[in-house]
Task: structure prediction
Amino acid sequence: MDIGNCRYRLGGFPKRQTTTRKSKVIEMLIFEDKLPVTGRTEIKERIKGVSTRLGIDPNWLMAVMHFESRLNPGAVNPYSGATGLIQFMPQTAKSLGTTTEALKTMGFAGQLPYVERYYARMLPG
Result:
């Protein structure tokens, strides 16, 4: 995936969403409601951790994953064989030390390290 192209298709980097409840600001991620209910808090924390290490807005990462797979780690493109949260192509998966077959069996927790490795190579800095 070309980061510049994805940024263009997604309309730039999304802004953070917040809501106020009892004088506390609660940070919400876009498409948060699309995450699995079971383990949602842990997934959100992992996404925020990956985003912090990469120096990107976690909402941008959520937008990319939603655009590519609708936040479905088991998503497979029937034409290209692209698999997972950010639709890893078979050759890309291989370059990251895995396969699309292995990615299909992983959940969020299993795929996020590969998402991080991919973007660590692609992002400037």
User: Anything to note?
Assistant: Residues 3-122 form one domain.
